[in-house]
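Hi there. Long-time user, first ticket. I'm pasting a complex I've been working with (about 406 residues overall). I'd like to know whether the download I got is complete or cut off, because the file seemed smaller than I expected. Thanks.
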Amino acid sequence: MLKLYNDPFAPSPRRVRMFMAEKAIEYERIDLSIAAGETQNAGFLALNPLGEVPVLVLDDGQCLTESLAICRYLEQRFPEPPLLGVDALEQTRIDSVVQRIMFRAYVPSTLAFRHTHKFWQGRIEQVPEFGAIAKQQVLDEWQLLNDTLAERPFMAGDQFSFADIVAYTTLEFGKPSGIRVNDHQTHLKRWQAEIAARPSAKA
Amino acid sequence: MLKLYNDPFAPSPRRVRMFMAEKAIEYERIDLSIAAGETQNAGFLALNPLGEVPVLVLDDGQCLTESLAICRYLEQRFPEPPLLGVDALEQTRIDSVVQRIMFRAYVPSTLAFRHTHKFWQGRIEQVPEFGAIAKQQVLDEWQLLNDTLAERPFMAGDQFSFADIVAYTTLEFGKPSGIRVNDHQTHLKRWQAEIAARPSAKA
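Hi, the file is complete. Here it is re-exported in full:
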C-alpha cells in the first residue's frame, strides 16, 4: 500500500491528496504537523532530508518527494482518468498552465503568507512590506486567470486537469493571507464553485 | 523549423537553449530584449499574452510557453539523448531534483536579483531587506547541493540530466546578485567546472 506523509494544512500535500482522490487511489495517510516541528525530527528527515511534505513511500520503501514529481509518477502508474493530458501537445498545454500558476500564483502566495501572517512571527524574519507586494502579485494573477476562464471552462482547456488542482489548492491556501475571489471575478467564482463541488476538494 | 523567442541574458530561455544544444536540435533563434521592453510589445504579446520568454513556435505556428513544459515537449519529440529519465522512477527522481532546485534556488535567485540589483531600481518597488533574505536562502541551498554532490557525480544521480541544466543556469543567473560558489564548496566547484566544459553551456 502506498503511504503519504502529509500535513492537513499545507498546500503541497493537498495537491497530491486531491490528485489521488480524483483517481481513486488507495493509500495510507500519515499526518504530521509542520507547526509542531514533526517534519524536522530525525525519523522524518531520514525519509526526506529537506524536511518537507509530501513524501510518497512506495511498496518497496522508496521515498518520492516534491508534489509535482509525485503526481507525474502517479499519472504513469494510474493513468485513469488522465489529469496530465494524453498526447504530447495536450500534456505540454496542461504543464504550461501548471508552471504558470505555480510560479505566478503559488510562489507569491507562500511569500505573502510567510511575510504577513502572524503564524510566522518569531519563526522567520518577516518583511511585511515585501509580503504586501507578493500579495498584490497574487491578486493580479487571479484577475488574469479570471479573464482566461471567460474563454474556457477549466484552467487548461475543456477538461478538468491537474492545472485545476494546482489552482484550486493555491486559492484555498491564500485564504489565511486574505487572498479571496472578489465579486466582480464572475468566471473565477463560477470555476471555484465547480471545483469545490468535486468530492476530491475535500480530500 | 522550430523557432525560439529568446532573451540572451534571461535564465529561463537559457535552460531551453542548453537542452536543445544537448540534443543537437536545430532551430531559429529570435533574440528579444526584456530590458528594452521588446517582450511587452503587441507583436510578442500575441504569441504569449504574459509577455515572457521563452516561447517555442512549432511548424504549424502553435506557441508553447514555460521553459519546463517546453523541455518536456522536446524530450518526447527528440528522445535522444534522454535528459528527463527513461523509466517512471528515474523520471520522478530527476523531476524531483528539478522541482527542488527551481523552488529552493531559482525562485529566491530571481527575488534576490529583483530586490537588490540596480537594474531593477525604478522599474519595480525594491525591498532590499527582503532581497538579502532571499540571497541567503540561495546560498544555503547551494551549500546543501554541494553536500549532495559529495555522494553523486550529477545533480540527480550518475547521469547528466535536465537537473544539471536547471542548476547550472540558476548558478550562472546568480552571478549579478553576487551569488558564487565559494572555495570550500569543492564538490559544487568540481561539478560546475564539468558542466561549464560542455559545449551546451555556451548555447
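A couple of notes from our side: Chain A touches chain B at residues 50, 62, 64-66, 68-70, 72-73, 76-77, 88-89, 91-92, 95-96, 98-100, 103-104, 107, 111, 115, 125, 127, 129-130, 133, 144 (CB under 8 Å). Chain A has two domains: 2-77, 88-202.
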